[in-house]
Design brief:
globular; 142 residues; mainly alpha
């Protein structure tokens, strides 16, 4: 089951990379990043970690991959990272937050909105931690 989901994450990421005007071989590297992000999310979920921890760790690993590959391929990190995070984007949470709000299910809307915000915050924190680590590493290297 993991294999199929990871393959789909690869192709979904490639589709969004094309949509975001990523060019050439960078499209494939973005797809690999998306597959990595979803694979680690699934692995951490299977191990029983909380959603926020799964998203934090999977995003940090994806950001780490993007930092290394961007340096190797001489491109910017967002070129690889933005498309690679698409499989983990909490779009469903935003949808259900709005749906519950429209249906006057305010408590459900609030809970789903808080869950979605925690997921988005975990993803942002994962990116910030890795980016900060790489900046400090490069500053001390000089």
């Amino acid at each position: 089951m993991f294999f199929i989901e990871v393959i789909f994450a690869f192709f979904i990421t490639i589709s969004f990379a094309i949509l975001f005007n990523v060019r050439g071989k960078l499209i494939i590297y973005s797809g690999i990043g998306g597959a990595i992000s979803w694979l680690f999310y699934l692995l951490f979920t299977k191990e029983g970690y909380s959603y926020s921890t799964c998203y934090l760790l999977a995003t940090a690993i994806t950001a780490f991959y993007s930092e290394i590959m961007a340096k190797k391929l001489q491109t910017t990190v967002p070129t690889l990272l933005i498309a690679a995070l698409i499989p983990m984007a909490p779009g469903g949470g935003v949808y259900y937050t709005m749906l519950y709000l429209i249906q006057n299910k305010y408590q459900d809307s609030m809970l789903k909105g808080m869950e979605t915000s925690i997921i988005a915050g975990s993803m942002a924190l994962g990116i910030i931690l890795v980016t900060t680590f790489f900046r400090i590493f490069h500053l001390t290297k000089r």
